[in-house]
Write a structure and sequence with these properties.
Helix content is about 40%, strand content about 15%. It is α/β, with parallel strands linked by helices and about 500 residues long. It folds into two domains: about 300 residues, Rossmann fold, CATH 3.40.50; about 140 residues, no CATH class. A nine-stranded mixed β-sheet has the order 2-4-14-15-11-10-5-6-9, with helices on both faces. It has a two-stranded antiparallel ribbon with strand order 1-3. Helix 5 packs antiparallel against helix 9, helix 15 packs across helix 17 and helix 17 packs across helix 18. About 40% of the residues are buried. The protein binds S-adenosylmethionine. The site of S-adenosylmethionine has 23 residues, from strand 6 and helix 10. The site of S-adenosylmethionine (SAM) has 23 residues, from strand 6 and helix 10.
C-alpha cells in the first residue's frame, strides 16, 4: 500500500476516509506477490467507505497506557487492556438507552465493566484467567469499602512486619527463582498474615489483590511484550549461564531491575493509591445499575448459554493473533493464586492465538449439541469455509510454508482456528444483542511469512455473514511495526490497529 500523505492531513481533518490517502497496489498483502491476494484486495475495496483513520482514538486510548495512572483502573496493571477513555468514547458514540446493558466477552481487567458501572450502565463480562477475576472482585467493590478499615490496615502494615511463615510460594516451573529468598519469605508471610486478619471480606479480598499486584515489582522478572524478561541475578539465569559458559557459549544477558522494593513498601504505596482512589470515588457514587457480573469461564462455552436479545452494546478486545501467551506473562500471578498444573488447561482454553493451542472444534461441536444448538455451530463452520479472504490466507500461508518462510508450521492451524473461534463468538454476539445494538472490537492486523492478515477486514466480513451491518472500521493513526525477523526478510509493512464497529439491524 502506498501511503500518500495529504498536505492537510492532521491539520484540518481529524478523521478521513482511508480511501483518500491510500492506493491499492499489487503486493499490498502478499510481499513479493508470492500468492494471490485478490480476495483480500476485494475486501479492502468493499470496506473502503467505512475505513476511517481518525485522531479520535490513539495508540494510547487503545492501550492500557492511560489506565496506569487512572483512578481505580491502575490498581492492577494489565498491559493487554484498553483505556477507560476508549470505553467512555464508544459508549457516548453508541448513545445507549439509560440503564442499558453492555457486554465484554473478553473482559480482562474489566475496563469495560468498570467504566460502564461508573457511567451508570449495567455490564456483564466473561473472562477465563483467575488473576483477572481477583482484580474484578477487588475493583468492583470500590464504592463499598470502609475507608477507616483500610486506613487501619495500612497503619498495621507500616508498623508491624508479619513473622516468617511456614508456607512456601506455590511455584510452577516457569516461576521458580523469580524472587530473592527474602522477598519470597515476605510474600508468604503477608499471604498468611492477611488470612488471619479479623477484617471484613471486602478488605481481605482487596489485600489479596494488592499483594498479587506487587508481585512483578518485587520480582526478578519484567513483563515485556510477549515475554517475561529475567534479571540476571535470578538463580535460574545464573545456573543457565554457568552451563552455557561451560559449553563455551556466550552467557545469556538478562535485564537489571536495580534495587527491588520490599513487599512491605510496595504494599504501602499501593494502599496509599487505593485509599486515595476510594475516597475520590465514594464522593460520587454512580447511579445504581442493576446488573454487574463477571462470568468466570471460557467465553466459547459461556456465550452460547446466555439469553438472546439482552445486550445494548458490546465493547471488547480479544487476544490478538500474535502468539502472545497470557498464561506465561502472568505466570507469577497465576502461581500466587495456586493455579499449579491447571495452567496447561487454561492455556488450551484460551482463544487460539498461540502455536500451542490444539483445535477445540470437536469439543465445541459437542457443546453445541449438548445445548441443542448444533445448527448455530454448523452454520458458523459453513461461513468460515466460505470466506474467500480467509481461505486465501490459509492457502497463502501453506505456500509460504512450502517455501520455508514460516518458522513454525503450527501458525497455519492457529490462524484458521483463531478465525473459526472468533466467528463462533460473532455468531453468539449477534444472537445475544438486541436489534440496533452496536458492537466494537479492538484488534491488530498481523503478518506471517510476508502475508498480511487483515484481521479487521476479515472479521468484518465474517460478522456481516452472521448478520451484522458493518458501520465503521476506525483506524488508529499510528501503525504497528513488524518484528525484526519479518522486516529483514519481507521489508517494512506497517500494520493497522483498528476498532471495528458493527450493528445488529433494527
Ligand atoms: C486483550 S485482553 C482484554 C483486555 C480488556 N479489554 C481490558 O481492558 O483489560 C483479552 C482477554 O481475553 C481473555 N481470554 C482469552 N481467551 C478467552 C476465552 N476463551 N474465554 C474468556 N476469556 C478469554 C484473556 O485472558 C484476556 O484477558
Amino acid at each position: 500500500m502506498q501511503q500518500l500523505t495529504m498536505p492537510f492531513a492532521g491539520i484540518h481533518a481529524a478523521t478521513k476516509p482511508i480511501s483518500t490517502i491510500t492506493m491499492l497496489d499489487a503486493g499490498l498483502f502478499s510481499h513479493g506477490e508470492v500468492y494471490n491476494e485478490a480476495a483480500r484486495l476485494a475486501l479492502e475495496r468493499r470496506y473502503e467507505d467505512i475505513l476511517e483513520e481518525t485522531s479520535k482514538f490513539s495508540r494510547k486510548t487503545v492501550s492500557f497506557q492511560t489506565n496506569k495512572v487512572k483512578t481505580l483502573h491502575s490498581w492492577f496493571k494489565y498491559r493487554e487492556g484498553f483505556s477507560a477513555e476508549l470505553v467512555e468514547l464508544l459508549l457516548s458514540e453508541f448513545d445507549l438507552p439509560s440503564g442499558g446493558t453492555v457486554l465484554d466477552p473478553f473482559a480482562g481487567s474489566c475496563t469495560t465493566l468498570l467504566q460502564s458501572k461508573i457511567m451508570g450502565y449495567s455490564a456483564v463480562g466473561i473472562e477465563l484467567l483467575p488473576h483477572c477475576h481477583l482484580a474484578w472482585q477487588a475493583k468492583s467493590r470500590a464504592f463499598e469499602y470502609n475507608l477507616e478499615e483500610l486506613k487501619e490496615i495500612r497503619a498495621l502494615v507500616k508498623e508491624t512486619a508479619p513473622s516468617k511463615s511456614g508456607l512456601s510460594f506455590p511455584h510452577i516451573k516457569i516461576t521458580e527463582t523469580a524472587f530473592p529468598d527474602e522477598v519470597e519469605n515476605e510474600i508468604t508471610a503477608y499471604t498468611e498474615w492477611f488470612d488471619t486478619l479479623d477484617n471484613s471480606e471486602n478488605a481481605l479480598i482487596l489485600c489479596k489483590m494488592l499483594l498479587m499486584s506487587v508481585l512483578e515489582d518485587v520480582s526478578y522478572t519484567r513483563k515485556d511484550g510477549q515475554y517475561l524478561r529475567w534479571d540476571s541475578r535470578a538463580e535460574k539465569i545464573i545456573e543457565r549461564n554457568q552451563i552455557r559458559v561451560a559449553q563455551g557459549k556466550k552467557p545469556f544477558k538478562g535485564i537489571y531491575k536495580g534495587q527491588l522494593p520490599t513487599v512491605r513498601n510496595a504494599l504501602i504505596w499501593k494502599l496509599d493509591t487505593v485509599i486515595q482512589d476510594i475516597a475520590t470515588l465514594q464522593q460520587q457514587p454512580p447511579v445504581h445499575s442493576h446488573e454487574q457480573l463477571l462470568i468466570e469461564g471460557n467465553t466459547l462455552w459461556e456465550l452460547p448459554k446466555l439469553a438472546a436479545n439482552h445486550f445494548d452494546a458490546v465493547i471488547t478486545s480479544p487476544p490478538y493473533a500474535n502468539r502472545y501467551d497470557y498464561t506465561r506473562t502472568y505466570a507469577l500471578e497465576l502461581a500466587y493464586l495456586n493455579i499449579g498444573q491447571d495452567i496447561f488447561d487454561l492455556r488450551q482454553s484460551m482463544l487460539s492465538c498461540t502455536v500451542e493451542n490444539k483445535p477445540k472444534n470437536g469439543k465445541l461441536k459437542q457443546h453445541y449439541a449438548d445445548i441443542n444448538a448444533s445448527n448455530r455451530y454448523d452454520k458458523t463452520i459453513e461461513i468460515v469455509k466460505n470466506n474467500a479472504a480467509l481461505q486465501e490466507i490459509n492457502r497463502a500461508l501453506e505456500r509460504r510454508n512450502e517455501r520455508g518462510e514460516i518458522n513454525n508450521r503450527s501458525i497455519l492451524r492457529m490462524i484458521d482456528q483463531y478465525f473459526t473461534e472468533l466467528t463462533l463468538i460473532y455468531m453468539e454476539l449477534y444472537r445475544v444483542c438486541k436489534a440496533g445494538a452496536r458492537v466494537a472490537f479492538v484488534n491488530d492486523n498481523v503478518r506471517y511469512g510476508g502475508e498480511v492478515i487483515p484481521v479487521d477486514l476479515i472479521s468484518t466480513s465474517l460478522a456481516e455473514s452472521v448478520g451484522f451491518e458493518p458501520v465503521k472500521i476506525y483506524v488508529i493513526p499510528q501503525r504497528k511495526g513488524n518484528s525484526s525477523q519479518q522486516m529483514k526478510r519481507f521489508g517494512r509493512r506497517p500494520l493497522r490497529k483498528s476498532i471495528t464497529i458493527w450493528q445488529k439491524p433494527l
